Amino acid sequence: MSGERKSALMKLAFKVLYEYQRKHRKKFEEELKHYEKLCEIHDDKKRHLRKEHRKALESGDEEIIEIA
Question: Are 57 and 65 in contact (CB under 8 A)?
Fold first, then answer.
């Protein structure tokens, strides 16, 4: 019912959960930034390898194509 201090009780009951979330949110955000940087590096390497592979195919040299 209205006025029975539900909000105060919920705040108290969920206090530990909120603290846990706050503490781990920062760690998660840092790990996410690191992961995004790794993805960017991976994409750059992948782009570079595709470019090298395309050059090898265009050269027509079987040995270079095999290496690529």
Answer: yes
CB atoms inside a 10 Å sphere around CB 53: 14
The one-character DSSP state at 37 is: H
Integer angstrom CA distances of residue 24 from 4, 17, 50, 59: 32, 11, 38, 52
- How is the chain split into domains, by residue range? 6-67
For 3, phi then psi, to 5°, come to: 85, 10
2-33 pLDDT per residue, tens? 666 678 888 888 999 999 999 899 899 999 99
Its pTM stands at: 0.59
